[in-house]
Amino acid sequence: MKVVNGSLATKDYPGANMNELKNGLADARQALNSLRMEVQIKENALISAQQQIRFIRQQLSSKMSDSRAG
């Protein structure tokens, strides 16, 4: 995005074309931000699932140790 912004700043496009390019860039930024949010949400869900799996493993390990000892 920074490269595109830099390129737009150094080029002289006709008004309508420049507006179209800027609108396209704004749309791309918005889509990228949406994807970032979606990735963050999925990452948080994955971290939560991993924590739950760890907890279940600990519980299972503890119960198996208890049953062997008893």
UniProtKB/TrEMBL annotation:
Protein name, UniProt field: Conjugal transfer pilus assembly protein TraH
Domain of life of the source: Bacteria
Gene encoding the protein: traH_1
Keyword line: Coiled coil
Coiled coil (residue ranges): 18-52
